[in-house]
Structures are given as C-alpha cells and as structure tokens.
From TrEMBL:
GO cellular component, one term: plasma membrane
Stored SUPFAM superfamilies: NAD(P)-binding Rossmann-fold domains (SSF51735)
Organism from which the protein derives: Corynebacterium macclintockiae
Chain intervals for the UniProt region annotation (Disordered): 211-233
Lineage, broadest ranks: Bacteria, Bacillati, Actinomycetota, Actinomycetes, Mycobacteriales
Protein's recorded name: Saccharopine dehydrogenase NADP-binding domain-containing protein
C-alpha cells in the first residue's frame, strides 16, 4: 500500500528533464521540506545528471536526489517506478499517447499519481479502465493538476461551499479568467493528439463533444440543453455587477468544464442538481471589449481548425510553441492569472470568489500547482477528502483536484503564494 515503509521515495518526478519537468524539479528542490524524499526520473541518464547538477548550484540538497531510468514504453521500468514511490508526478505528454501504462501501474500498486492532463479523452479512458482498480488499491489518480484545471476546479469547490454554508444551491456558475502568459507547447500538442484520436472514430468524437464526457454516471446528469464550450458574455448577464464588461472564448474551457462537472458528480451534485457551468476569457470594457470577444471567437475557431489538420502543423508551428519550448524566466515572472467565479442561486442570490497568482500560468504557475499537489498527497494524507460514493473506504480512484486533494490543497497553495478571496 501507499504508506508502506518499504517505498524508497516520497515523490518521483517522471519527465524531469522536459521544460515543465525542469521547472517542477526546481520548485521541489526549493520548497519541499528536507524530509521529503525526491527522485528524478526520465529516459536519459546523462540529461538527468545534468539537471541534478544544475539544480545543485542553487539548491545543494538536490545533489542527493536519486536518478531513476524509466520509459513510458517500458512497462517493467514503470512498474518498478510505481512500486518504489508514494507519489508519481508525470509531465510526459501527450497523455493520450504516453500516459496509460503509468496510470495502470500506479492504480495497481496503490501509488498516488498527479499530472498536467488537459485531455478529456485521456481522462475518460483512464477513469473507465482504472477507477475501480485505484479505488481498491487506495491510489489517488488525479489528472489536471496545473493551470488546467486547478483554478477552475477549486474555484467551483469554494463557490459551492459558500452557497452550502447559506443552505443554498447554485443554478449557474461562471468563471471569468484574466491572464498574461501563453499556452505551453505541451498543451498545444495535447490538443493535436485529441484531434488525431477522433479521426475516423465517430464514437470518440461524440464523447468529446458531450459536456459530461468525464461524468462517472452519465445517466444521472441533468438535461440542460446545449452547453457550448465557447461563446461571448457580458458580466451583468451572468450575475456580475459590471454592466459593460465582456468576455470571450477561453481555449481551455472544453477541458476545464468537464473536469469541474466530474468533480460535481463525484460530490453527488451537492451544489445544485441542475447546475450549469461555463468559462470565458476577459476581453475588456465597452465596445472594444465586445469586439475583442467576438474577434477572439473567430480567431479561436481558425486555430482549432488548423490544429485539427496535419498539413497545417508546420505553418502553425511558426506561431505556437512546440513541446519542450517555453518563455524566458523574466517572461514567466511577468505573467499572472486572476479568475473570478460567479454563482447564481435559483432565488437569484449571487456568490463570488477569486483566485490569483503573480506568475505565468502555463509554466511557473503550473509547476507550483503540480508540485503542491504531490506535496499535499505526501504531507496531508490524513486530511485528504473521503466520503464520495465513488471513492469507497480507501479514498482512491480516478479523481480531480477538488475531490482528490480538496481543502488541504487549497491551504498549501495559499501558503505558496496563490491568493484566494470571496
């Protein structure tokens, strides 16, 4: 089981030498307490040694980080990795292409697992194949522990809890995000992988289009009609207080909204049995804000079409980063995100909360969120949420940040510099 003293490590980071993997390794070296046993894993011994040497310059403790050779195509190495550690962090994507074998080994051996997946088809098939196995072993398999979809999922959790404290439920909940920072090359490659997976597979295409792609019990979800992933809204029309503030399509809404809906279903729909959830990107005030919102919709539609066409990949690569690429340290430090969740009850009562971080969301912010997810599993084991009918007595399963980590994770993120407020 996960807490066995025979485990050699507390956290093993697979994909440590990649761009986000390196940032995650740096965060762990800088912020994990000295008693947390950390190992760096990847395919290439020389690259791992170079990373450890680089980390040691600023963080001498990293000199003692063990190196683990593991490959997503080598099941034996993945089994050993899972048996030897309490928690695995995986930054090896696209997950639909590379992720299933590691999830299987973690679920089988009672090893907690966190990743950055923003891929609904991967998460769906992971849940279908390994939820029951993880429930039996006690492994918490927690996808989407980066900017996709931690602010979305935790913001909705806190919003629902606030309504519940007032003995109220929610009819609608909307997240508006402001941000500075680009999407990572890994995120773009994951989108390409999703489009490749549905080519010639109409059932997968229908599944991906379903707003309840990730629901553990699709038949019990409410029939709310169309729930489009992308659109244009005015703040005052979703329960906000600003008359002429606009928001347009948010590219990650298609994944985030499904993670939030899975959380809500795992929690027994306790925040409202007809809750409608959506997300948008802030575009500004007045006529200019409105025009930016509609223009963004047209640009996003074109970009999605390009991502779905193999022949346009070379052209698109001029404008978007490839996997392993990312911004400079100065650019990462200059980024930020700020999310506002607005909930409206059936009676018209309004609830809000905000989450913010002064760091590039897709890189520095994501490495913080991913690292703190793993540290929550290691250091807050006795406080982790249980009680969902889908988790059983072990607390394991294919979960979400809200249901697998919950309030202990919120507290750790707050201590790490993320700001939460009503």
């Amino acid at each position: 089981m996960n807490n066995s003293p025979s485990r050699s490590f507390d956290i093993t980071l697979l994909g440590a030498t990649g761009f986000v993997g390196t940032l995650t390794a740096e965060y762990l070296a800088a912020h994990a307490s000295a008693d947390v046993r950390i190992a760096l894993a990847g395919r290439n011994q020389a690259k791992l040694e170079a990373l450890r040497e680089k980390l040691t310059v600023s963080h001498p403790r990293a000199a003692d980080f063990p190196l683990v050779i593991a490959d997503s195509s080598d099941n034996r190495s993945l089994e050993k990795l899972a048996r030897d550690t309490r928690v695995v962090i995986s930054t090896v994507g696209p997950y639909y292409r590379y992720g299933f074998p590691l999830v299987r080994e973690c679920a089988t051996h009672g090893t907690h697992y966190v990743d950055l997946a923003g891929e609904p088809l991967f998460m769906r098939e992971s849940a279908d194949s390994y939820h029951d196995i993880a429930t039996a072993s006690g492994a918490r398999i927690i996808h989407a522990c980066g900017f996709d979809s931690v602010p979305s999922d935790l913001g909705m959790l806190l919003l629902g809890q606030r309504a519940s404290e007032n003995k109220d439920t929610l009819e609608t909940a909307t997240m508006i995000v402001k941000m500075k920072g680009g999407l990572s090359g890994g995120t773009i490659d994951s989108m390409r992988e999703q489009f490749a997976a549905i080519k010639g597979a109409p059932e997968k295409k229908r599944l991906l289009a379903d707003p309840y792609t990730l629901s553990p019990d699709r038949d019990n979800e409410p029939d709310l009609g169309k729930q489009p992933d992308f659109g244009v809204v005015r703040d005052s029309d979703i329960g906000g207080t600003k008359d002429d503030v606009w928001a347009g399509p948010f590219i990650m809404a298609g994944s985030n909204t499904r993670v939030v809906r899975r959380s809500h279903a795992l929690l027994g729909h306790k925040f409202g049995d007809k809750l409608r959830y959506s997300e948008y990107l802030y575009t500004g005030k007045g006529f200019k804000g409105r025009m930016r919102a509609f223009t963004m919709g047209a640009v996003l539609g074109t970009a999605v079409a390009a991502l779905s066409q193999d022949r346009l990949r070379t052209f698109l690569s001029r404008w978007v980063p490839e996997p392993g690429e990312g911004p400079s340290e100065a650019e990462r430090d200059a980024g930020f995100f700020h999310t506002t969740h607005i909930g409206v009850s059936p009676s018209g009562a309004t609830y809000t909360n905000t989450i913010s971080l002064a760091a590039d969301p897709g890189y520095k912010g994501t490495s913080l969120m991913l690292s703190e997810a793993a540290l929550t599993l290691v250091l807050c084991d006795a406080e982790l949420p249980t009680g969902s009918p889908y988790q059983g007595k072990t607390g394991g399963g294919v979960l979400t940040p809200a249901t697998g980590l919950g309030m202990p994770y919120v507290r750790r993120l707050s201590d790490a510099g993320m700001k939460f407020s009503d």
